[in-house]
Design goal:
heterodimer; A: abc type-2 transporter like fold; four-stranded mixed sheet; B: six-stranded mixed sheet; four-stranded antiparallel sheet; 13 helices
């Protein structure tokens, strides 16, 4: 009887894991569209966001002045300052523009002997509140106020502290999540639909070899993807990794591992592409919203924090930001690192147990 | 020594109402045989073969493959069998060679991918993507994937369905070559000629049971008549003439009628024919056409079930 154990002298090219990874890699790079979406899309994202959040000259403050005799004084005072973009209109039109967010502030000059200004603004909009104090400042000075203490401004735009620096680790995490889940999930369900999984089940191939092969190939595709993103962010925006390169590499691999494991789990039972797409979105949506891709998750209520911290994307982005922005060591991020690894491992083992081959 | 033994195999699919795909099927395939499961679509052939391949679990019954059992010796059985499913779409963007290298890696022992390619005559296509292969070439590749593990027992589920005649003959040659090495083949088919030419023994399956078993020759002989006379009457005449009219003619074993077509199983056509012509003339009936041929497994199936095996063949 033949032995199912591997003979020790089996060449590397005859090992099932190697062949599965090789096959996946060949199928992947022979599909130019897939390659574009995997590598081109995150790049487009960085470019678009980089342009949107580049350090641009301050946006002018839109101020509406309600037309009146005294209003002209305010208008003249504000128009002398480049920071303001002034419009004059009647009260109703000004209010409407404020309501629609077309102006940041409405200035009403009280009729009567004593000069007086009333400000209408929306306290919920930061730029509106900002406009209120800036306009008040300008009008007070125009009316003759003198500041008792001289002040000077220094602008902080060093690499590491900008929004783009904050954003790149977020995008890195997002693309690892998307790539891991979609890449693994779609391929697996597609193979199930084509009955290729059933065919493989009829061979002596070990199931764990197959699942590990799918995960490992995804890990390999991730490396260039992440590299492209990081190199571009560095060249175009000067985003640097303040921490150890090795720490970053470990986090990237761990993230890819964790999310491709999750991808296997999500795809372990689904029989159609529609079903798996729905499940993917269900799994990814909370992380998109809560895990801090674009802003810090600390903005969410304290009660939600334990849940948010438990999400693998939060752990990945948190740890990556700590390394890239603060130069933290992996040991300092041990909690996130262990949790992330656990997500991957548990998902893999569950997938192995639940996996539907037929 | 049996390569396959199945006893009282039953398979019921959940559902409302539950579907009984296999209802007490017995099978004993000897080592070195090419054995055919022949039956119409929906007869339970695929369910049966997939239970034997270990891809489905039977609701009840006993299965032994090469003396081993599913659930206990799975890995050992899989090392020793090769299968081709009714429908597998292999990875489109791998070449023939790459596909075979992949499958070869799953087996502890097997033949070189090059040898498998040679057995199915795909050497020239070794660097061609699966996507670019014809239907026949894909099917040959599927068989090569089964051969690359050097199996003792080959399962083929409808290996030639949907193929052109030339591709079918190529596959038959591959299967025959495999059989010549003293190895066992179990195949399902709904093609009569395939079963007749390829199989040492055939089990005719209908509604989840074996309704006839034997060599193709034995089965045909069981009809009593090895020849068939087929003729048609004018449409208008046929209503008045039941098939029994011809059942008593000399050397006729059985007579059947479908609309204005008649089919007689006869042992000696040259004895029946003059009597048939005389009878028609006596009734004042005109024949629209007449053919005689050797009886086939199709006739066996029609005899046993009263139906044709393929919808296409009946129309």
């Amino acid at each position: 009887m033949k032995q199912s154990a591997l003979p020790a002298n089996r060449p590397w090219s005859r090992r099932p894991l190697v062949q599965i990874v090789l096959s996946r890699a060949r199928e992947f790079y022979r599909e130019p569209e897939a390659v574009f979406w995997v590598y081109g899309f995150p790049l487009l994202m960085v470019v678009a966001l980089g342009i949107a959040f580049r350090n641009q000259p301050e946006r002018p403050i839109a101020v509406d002045v309600v037309a009146s005799a005294q209003g002209e004084v305010a208008q003249t005072a504000l128009e002398n300052n480049q920071r303001f973009q002034v419009r004059v209109a009647d009260l109703a039109a000004c209010r409407e523009r404020l309501r629609l967010g077309k102006t940041d502030l409405v200035v009403i000059s009280a009729a009567g002997e004593a000069q007086r200004y009333d400000y209408w603004f929306d306290p919920g909009r930061p730029e509106s509140a900002l406009a209120r104090s800036a306009v008040d400042d300008a009008l007070q000075r125009a009316a003759g106020r003198t500041d008792p203490v001289p002040t000077g401004d220094q602008q902080m735009t060093d690499p590491g502290g900008r929004y783009i620096d904050f954003l790149v680790p977020g995008l890195l995490g997002m693309s690892l999540m998307g790539g891991g889940l979609w890449g693994v999930g779609f391929v697996t369900v597609d193979m199930r639909i084509r009955k290729l999984l059933k065919r493989l089940l009829a061979t002596p191939m070990r199931k764990s070899d197959f699942l590990a092969g799918i995960m490992l190939s995804r890990l390999l595709f991730m490396i260039p993807e992440v590299l492209v993103l990081l190199v571009f962010a560095r060249l175009a925006f000067g985003v640097r990794n303040q921490g150890h390169t090795l720490s970053l590499l470990v986090l990237v691999l761990l993230g890819a591992f964790s999310f491709s494991g999750l991808g296997l789990l999500v795809a372990s039972r689904a029989k159609t592409l529609e079903a798996v797409s729905g499940l993917m979105n269900l799994v990814m949506l909370p992380m998109w919203v809560l895990s801090g891709i674009f802003f810090s998750p600390e903005r969410f209520p304290a009660a939600a924090q334990p849940f948010i911290r438990a999400l693998p994307l939060t752990q990945l982005i948190d740890a990556t930001r700590a390394v890239m922005l603060e130069g933290a060591s992996l040991a300092a991020q041990a909690g996130n690192v262990v949790a992330l690894a656990a997500w991957g491992l548990i998902s893999f083992l569950l997938a192995l147990k639940l996996f539907r081959w037929n | 020594m049996f390569a396959i033994r199945a006893t009282n195999l039953k398979k019921q699919y959940e559902g409302r109402p539950p579907v009984e795909a296999v209802r007490g099927l017995d099978l004993a395939v000897e080592v070195g045989e090419c054995f055919g499961l022949l039956g119409p679509n929906g007869a339970g052939k695929t369910t049966t073969i997939e239970i034997l391949e270990g891809l489905l679990t039977a609701t009840s019954g006993d299965v032994e493959i090469l003396g081993l059992r599913w659930g206990r010796d799975d890995q050992a059985i899989r090392e020793r069998i090769g299968i081709s499913l009714q429908e597998t779409k292999l990875a489109e963007k791998l070449t023939v060679r790459e596909t075979l290298e992949l499958f070869r890696s799953f087996y502890a022992q097997g033949i070189e991918p090059a040898a498998a390619m040679q057995q199915v005559s795909l050497e020239e296509k070794q660097n061609t993507w699966v996507a670019k292969l014809s239907g026949g070439q894909r099917q040959r590749l599927a068989v090569a994937c089964a051969l690359v593990g050097d199996p003792e027992l080959l399962f083929l589920d409808e290996p030639t369905t949907g193929l052109d005649p030339q591709s079918r003959r190529q596959l038959w040659d591959i299967i025959r070559d495999f059989g010549r090495q003293g190895r066992t083949v179990l195949l399902t088919t709904h093609y009569m000629d395939e079963a007749e030419r390829l199989c040492n023994r055939v089990a005719i399956v209908n509604a989840g049971q074996v309704i006839a078993l034997g060599t193709p020759r034995e089965l045909i002989a069981s009809l009593g008549g090895e020849q068939v006379i087929e003729f048609s009457l004018q449409r208008t005449d046929a209503h008045a003439v039941p098939a029994e009219t011809f059942a008593g003619l000399p050397a006729v074993q059985a007579a059947r009628q479908e609309a204005h077509h008649y089919s007689l199983s006869v042992s000696e056509a040259h004895v029946t024919l003059p009597a048939l012509l005389a009878t028609l003339e006596a009734h004042g009936l005109a024949m629209a056409n007449l053919t005689t041929r050797h009886a086939s497994l199709e006739d066996v199936f029609v005899h046993l079930t009263g139906r044709h095996i393929n919808e296409e063949a009946a129309s």
